[in-house]
Design a protein that fits this description.
The chain is built from nine helices and two strands; from the N terminus they run H-E-H-H-E-H-H-H-H-H-H. The protein is mostly helical. The chain starts with a helix and ends with a helix.
Length: 164
């Protein structure tokens, strides 16, 4: 195709910008003949197409800042924007998502039917339950019995599949 195509695909494969991609003069005709991503991969493997080394380590500054913050530096009042609640994360979102996942898993297992699921889903959206325990209490009042062992399996399933 064109050199521009080869540079674009090589940049994608090497995770670099198009300007950092270089093509050897001797392999320029081969690069022009490249039609697919596999052709470009072969050129990279041969060493005909390569990426220049970065001029300097720009990411180092951010990395050092993150390390300092992890140690507790640069967290004074002057650096803070937003209230303590805003900085803590969205508590309501976390609560609702965990309740919804629990409900979804109970439906998948067959402990609750669609009608019960819809009813409790709407209640969760309306902020009816302060936590999962109260949701489970209301479910048990409805006639849904969930043993501790089943609850543990559900929690493990949720952790494994949703919080990677």
């Amino acid at each position: 195709m064109t050199i521009k195509f080869v540079k674009r695909v090589a940049g994608e494969l090497l995770r670099r910008g198009e300007n950092a991609i270089k093509i050897k003069e001797s392999a320029r005709s081969d690069a022009e003949k490249a039609l697919t991503k596999d052709d470009v991969r072969k050129l990279i493997k041969d060493g005909s197409v390569y990426a220049e080394l970065p001029k300097h380590n720009l990411s180092l500054h951010g990395k050092l800042l993150r390390q300092k913050r992890a140690k507790g530096r640069k967290r004074g009042y002057g650096k803070r924007k937003g209230t303590a609640k805003a900085r803590a994360g969205k508590v309501w979102e976390r609560k609702v998502r965990s309740q919804r996942l629990l409900l979804k898993r109970l439906k998948e297992i067959g402990k609750i039917n669609t009608k019960t699921f819809d009813k409790f889903y709407a209640s969760i959206k309306g902020n009816a339950f302060p936590d999962k325990r109260s949701l489970l209490l209301h479910l048990s009042d409805e006639g849904v019995k969930v043993s501790d062992e089943e609850l543990k399996q559900i929690e493990d399933y949720i952790k494994k599949n949703y919080y990677k």
